[in-house]
Design brief:
two-stranded parallel ribbon; mainly alpha
Length: 88
């Protein structure tokens, strides 16, 4: 399996700033916004996180989806690890 590192880009910063400006994330948690924005601009399907305070919550899922679609990106799934790991 090849490991891929995604870089923070100007476009990801622009999108993350929209997430903050539109009230999804407090400004002091910009790193949470950039996490989702980098995944979005790199066309990933999912973000998996243990961050239930700012990332894995209904408000974040709904509002980032709206902004992403408005800005020409697809919807990105936001899940906790327990939602994506098959324990069977």
């Amino acid at each position: 399996m090849e490991l891929l590192f995604l870089e923070q880009s100007d476009e990801a910063e622009r999108l993350a700033n929209l997430y903050v400006t539109e009230g999804i994330f407090p400004e002091k948690y910009f790193t949470d916004a950039i996490h989702i924005a980098v995944a979005t601009v790199n066309d990933l399907d999912f973000v998996v996180s243990f961050n239930f305070k700012h990332i894995v919550k209904r408000k974040t899922m709904t509002m980032t989806e709206g902004i992403n679609i408005r800005e020409g990106y697809k919807r990105i799934g936001i899940h906790s690890p327990t939602e994506v790991i098959d324990n069977d």
